[in-house]
Amino acid sequence: MKEMTVYLQETTNAQPIETLESALLNTNGIERALVDVSDGEVKIMYHEEQITKESVLEKIKEQGFHSVH
Question: Which residue has the higher pLDDT, 31 or 41?
Answer without folding.
Answer: 31
